[in-house]
Amino acid sequence: MRMKQLASVLIFVGAGVCATQASAQFDGLYAPVAPPKSVNLGMVELGKKLYFDPRLSKSGFISCNSCHNLSMGGTDNIRTSIGDKWQQGPINSPTVLNSSLNLAQFWDGRAADLKEQAGGPIANPGEMAFSHTLAIDMLASIPAYVREFKLVFGKDKVDIDQVTDAIAEFEKTLVTPNSRFDQYLLGNKTAMTKDELAGYKLFNESGCVACHNGPNLGGNSFQKMGVVEAYKGNVEGRAAVTGKDADRFNYKVPTLRNVELTYPYFHDGNSDTLGEAVDVMGRLQLGKKFTKAENDQIVAFLKTLTGEQPVFRLPILPPSSDKTPRPTPFN
Ligand code: HEC
Ligand code: HEC
Question: What are phi and psi of 306, to 5 degrees?
Answer without folding.
Answer: -75, 120
